[in-house]
Amino acid sequence: MTVDEMVDLINDGLQAEGEYTITATNDSGTLTLTTLDTGDDASITLADVSGTLNLATLGLTAGTTTGTTTEVDTTGADIVVGSSSADTINLSIPELTAEALGIADLDVSTADGAKEALSVLDMAIDEVSNARAEMGATMSRFEFRSAQIDTSIENLDAAQSAIADVDIAKEQAALSAASVKVQAAVAAASQANEMPENLLSLIR
Predict the structure, then answer these.
(1) Which residue in 1, 20, 134, 198 has the most C-beta neighbors within 10 A?
(2) Is 140 helix (H, G, I), strand (E, B) or coil?
(3) Which residues partner with 45 through β-bridges?
């Protein structure tokens, strides 16, 4: 069986099952399976199905194919959310264009095209839903860290106030005590100044 025949059998079997997101091609004599799914966990699983595709006929066994996976193209930046430059949250936005999702060239004018569109659109919806979930999780992380930063700022303001601000009640009490002491000292000095005159009056 030639590679082209294997490619035709695989594609016929996949399309018979309504699977259009995975395709087989003849890459310079090498049977190559590609998928529209992207990301770190993108993979292709081979399994027997009823119909024209039979793995044993192709000399293949059921299982997940080995090979490289395609990471989704993203734009991203590390946002500092703490007192250390290493305390960051990575903000990445996946590319969700029609081209990236593989839906730009869908044709629903034929029955086969409509079947393909249903399969590809299901995958695209899943990718968009996953992207929204990831963005929601990232937003939650930012909101949590924002609340932590607000609490830290409040605590720092309280500590600065405790160190730098005057305790009015305490200082008022100290002033009153000092005033009493001054008045007592003035009274004592006045009495001491009168003592010589009193002694002289006794001698007379």
Answers:
(1) 20
(2) helix
(3) 64
Looking up tokens 């799914």 gives: 37
Q: How far apart are CA 127 and CA 147, in angstroms?
A: 30
pLDDT above 70 as % of the chain: 77
The DSSP bridge pattern shows strands 88-94 and 74-80 to be antiparallel
> From CA 24, how far away is CA 125, in angstroms rounded?
23
Lowest mean pLDDT among 64-73, 80-89, 105-114, 180-189: 64-73
**95 and 73 Cβ atoms separated by less than 8 Å:** yes
Amino acid at 103: I
Strands (E), 38-184: 45-46, 63-64, 74-80, 88-94
User: With contact defined as beta carbons under 8 Å apart, do 53 and 10 qualify?
Assistant: yes
CB atoms within 10 A of CB 102: 19
How many angstroms separate the CA atoms of 39 and 46, rounded?
A: 19
Q: For residue 180, how many other CB atoms are within 10 A of its CB?
A: 10
Tens of pLDDT, residues 109-133: 888 888 888 888 888 898 889 889 9
Structure confidence by residue, pLDDT tens digits, 13-47: 877 777 777 888 888 877 788 777 765 556 666 66
Kindly report whether the global pTM for this prediction surpasses the value 0.70: no
Domain locations in the chain as residue ranges: 1-71, 74-165, 168-204
